[in-house]
UniProtKB/TrEMBL annotation:
Belongs to the glyceraldehyde-3-phosphate dehydrogenase family. InterPro entries: GlycerAld/Erythrose_P_DH, GlycerAld_3-P_DH_AS, GlycerAld_3-P_DH_cat, GlycerAld_3-P_DH_NAD(P)-bd, Glyceraldehyde-3-P_DH_1, NAD(P)-bd_dom_sf. One of its GO terms (biological process) is glucose metabolic process. The keyword NADP does not apply. SMART domains: Gp_dh_N (SM00846). Gene3D superfamilies: Dihydrodipicolinate Reductase, domain 2, NAD(P)-binding Rossmann-like Domain. It comes from the Bacteria. Residues 127-288 form the Glyceraldehyde 3-phosphate dehydrogenase NAD(P) binding domain. It is an enzyme of class 1 (oxidoreductase). It comes from Vibrio nereis. GO terms for molecular function: NAD binding; NADP binding; oxidoreductase activity, acting on the aldehyde or oxo group of donors, NAD or NADP as acceptor. Keywords: Oxidoreductase. The keyword Ligase does not apply. This is Glyceraldehyde-3-phosphate dehydrogenase.
Amino acid sequence: MSPEKHLLDWQTSQTIAEIISPLLGQLYRQKGVEVLLFGKTLVNAATIDIIKTHRLARRYTGTTLSPEQTLPLIKALSEMELSPCRIDVGQLAHEFWQDREDEHGVKDFLHSSLLGAMNGQTVSEPRDVVLYGFGRIGRLLTRLLVEKNGPGYPLRLRAVVVRGGKKGDLEKRASLLRRDSVHGQFNGSIVVDEERKAIIANGNYIQFIYANKPEEVDYTSYGINNALVVDNTGVWRDADGLSQHLGCKGAEKVLLTAPGKGDIKNVVFGVNDNVIQPEDKIISAASCTTNAITPILKAMNDKYGVTSGHIETVHSFTNDQNLIDNFHSGERRGRSASLNMVLTETGAAKAVAKALPELAGKLTGNAIRVPTPNVSMAIANLNLEKGTDKDELNAYLREMAIKSDLSAQIDYTESTEIVSTDLVGSRFAGVVDGAATIAQDNRCVLYIWYDNEFGYSCQVIHCMEQMMGVRYTTYPTK
């Protein structure tokens, strides 16, 4: 291929991506249809991002997929009477082009593949969401909710509750939302309304409520009703403490972004989200590590049977640790997080059993906190009932990442050059590093990357949608 042909092909892809972009916006804003490409959302994607996302096809299917091939499907989708849903156009395009040389029959193919998405359902009124706390997870949830917001999205962030602050508090919080040392600049515009104590993010009016405890808040006075309160503080982790939120006017349900204690249901979305019932008032979204490992452990147990195992977590430091040596009630955590690897405990291995009871008592776990600000790795050393080898095991996990009920949670890579910063912004609960997989007979070692902030926040969003009864079906169904 000549150098000129490379440039011409790139320019053609850019032109087609520019045609695709407004169609994606039209589907999402007007019909409530979120278009995905192999699990990656294309909502608000820039032209270059659309092209780059198409290159994921080879990772999952072994073949290429170009914008030229997805454009006919996206055009046809824009002309269909669709109900609110998620549509993975990558999977559909891969199936469509397997035995075709032109786009003839694309409408018939989509109609047969998306029968359930033409059920006459219309976009419902969005449900109110309140974030109680505005730390790392709270700000990332804000970014995700603002990104998704539109006439077709069924959740609406209405307010954030924080402790009473000094003068300039609101501007400081807005600044933290605008600029993030790990996750980069906020994608859009943020305006501070100091008089009304609010932040307007991409047109979303977010009321800031200053209170030192839940009972001080009356949400109805801000026009907020039947809201889901997402507690990001971790101050209360049992039913008694979290029930304080339910005593507030305008609050209907509570979601905890930390492992729950006692009888609180700990949910790893994709694994046991079926336990969420309409009558549930308090749910936990478990921990980032539990969310990262449980879907992959379920996939392993379903096919090979896990008899026992040990999970070692290499985890980025968190705000709970000290920047420099100082008193800390936890063992070893008083030593400088920026200078040391710190051996500590993790309850993630035991917590797996709450979402996946068949593994109860079979796993042990420890954690090493390391001097990186984000992205962690779980190393799962597993003993199996059935023997396997590296190639077979990787082929199975790759299949789980694209064509299973766990495809929204599991990602897969075989890059031999990938490092932790490459996973910042990953929307998956866990990413299997296939290049590092070890498998021999009835024993294997899996290396699982995860963005312990952003990937976890995406799992929390899934739980929020399920709790409020507004989660849309993803097509094609598995």
